[in-house]
Amino acid sequence: MRQPEVTADEAGAAQRLTNVLRWVHMTHLVDFMIFMPLGPQLLRTFDMPLTALGQLIFAYTVSAGVAGLALGATLHRFSRRRLLLGVYAGFAVSLLLTVTASGFGALLLARVIAGACGGVLSSLVQATVADYVPLERRAAALGTVMTGHALASVIGVPLGLAVASASSWRASFALVLVLVVPLMIAIARHVPGVAPAAHAPEAAGAASGLSTRLRGLAALSPAFALTFAVSASAYALGSYFAPYWVGNVGVSEAELPFVFLASGALSLFTSPRIGRLADRWGRLQVFTGAALLSLPIIAFMSRSGPLPLWLAVVLGAGFFVIVYGRWIPALALLSEWPSASQRGGFMMVNGVVTQLSMGVGALAAGAMIAFDESGRVSGFERVGDMAIVVTVLAMVIAWLLARRMARRAPR
């Protein structure tokens, strides 16, 4: 289908929309990303065993998956603006409960709510971009939104860790909470308030078409398998990056923010360009190139011993930029899979798969590694080998998915 020409006003509105979504994306990512680096403080505060951290992360991802699946079935009933405002308000509640948690049970409840809202936010942001940005500029827009990860790394996480060091871990989450109110105002102003009637075709698509697709799992499996492979391979390594970099590579906890600062600064430059490359040269080609580039980085970082600080920062930043950068062309490729009427529900379910994949990757990695008395991580090279194998599988799946879409009649 030929896309209509976009006026200057429409282009400006789309730019403002993507900028708002980028900051919304950043805030919930900071909440998720900062949790692991704050692990030692959390363990001391609540006198928890090390395994409790894994339980909290898994509870977050499972909650995100279940909530995303539930919302995906009713996505067509509400405008994107109303959904974003409601979910973001729930995210604010989770932050408040995290700040005031008095024990493991209260913290677990807070993280379950954070997972439900954060996971839905992630997929809802993606669905909003897919709905309101034309196909020929969609990968670039997704690249802009995905710089929320870079902002979280370059601003959110280092600042949050500095605040936690100067005050307490509670202050870090309180700082994120402060940002929520102005962003809710921005959502109300810049996210289109499309009436539910405008999504009427999606009602049938989400209720019947989506369930039909789920029943025909053989047809959907390449798309969800690609999501699983990209997410699980990244988070199997990323979930334990901080303890490995501190215990094995020799980066102190005070120096760890430099890695996130460097990776975030670099991603601010690379993420939009990866999106534009995908728009120009093709989603499959750019994803394959990024995946191939990630293989030696994964192999080297998962086997690294003590490194000078500058090299530890460069290698760590390269890992985050390349491994997580694979998501941009992959997500753009996946957005082409469903019909326009089904895209919102499909992207929401795909977000569920993403969250569950993250949890599975973290649990699988946790079963393969151990912490010795000196704080060093053993078995991390096996996690790297697993991530390499899964990445190669992701390239095969992406090729099969692109080939199947090429055989379909134009939508």
Automatic annotation (TrEMBL):
Organism domain of life: Bacteria
UniProt xrefs under PANTHER family: CHLORAMPHENICOL EFFLUX PUMP RV0191, PURINE EFFLUX PUMP PBUE
PROSITE patterns associated with the record: MFS
SUPFAM superfamilies reported in the protein's UniProt record: MFS general substrate transporter (SSF103473)
Membrane topology field: Multi-pass membrane protein
Entry keywords, A to Z: Cell membrane, Membrane, Transmembrane, Transmembrane helix
Name of the molecule in the record: Major facilitator superfamily (MFS) profile domain-containing protein
Transmembrane segments: 20-38, 50-71, 83-106, 112-133, 140-163, 169-188, 217-242, 254-272, 284-303, 309-334, 346-371, 383-402
GO CC, one annotated term: plasma membrane
Single GO MF annotation: transmembrane transporter activity
Localization in the cell: Cell membrane
